[in-house]
Amino acid sequence: MRLARRGIEKYLREGELLEEEVPEELRKPRGVFVTLLEGGELRGCIGFPFPHLPLAEATVKAAISSATSDPRFPPVTLEEMGGIIVEVSVLSPPEVIKVKDPKEYPKQVKVGRDGLMVEWRGFSGLLLPQVAVEWNWDAEEFLSQTCMKAGLGADCWLRRDVKISRFTAQIFTELEPGGRVEERRLT
Question: Structural domains in the chain?
């Protein structure tokens, strides 16, 4: 959490990446997403779904991108950081869901535990596990919304050639900007 916030602030102040010595656990490759919330509303969310970078490096880069490169929002300013809650979701490696018939997908998705990734013909979309809980979606709606996030039709998950993966997340959220952190794992 502190790496994400300090990474954003250093970049906004100096235009440089934060580089710090970190414990061994943060040097292991992991997928991660950093979500920024302002007044309870989304202000940015970008990450790396696959474990290609060490967790510390991926966290800093995702945090900076969430603050400066999310195309849905203007870049965050240093002044705004005093009112922004930072949330870091550390992801398990995605696991492809295998079914004989696409209509079985909803039975294979546990809302509140699983995040989803949809891939089809160069399109891809991902929704974190907490999104379905926050919007009170059932598994079918979660699948549809993930397809739409990928820029596809809501029912694309019914295609036999679509690839759907699930993952879990360990979520760290500031209770107040720069303050205490709550950790949770959705199950």
Answer: 2-92+169-185 (3.30.700.20), 95-167 (3.30.1490.150)
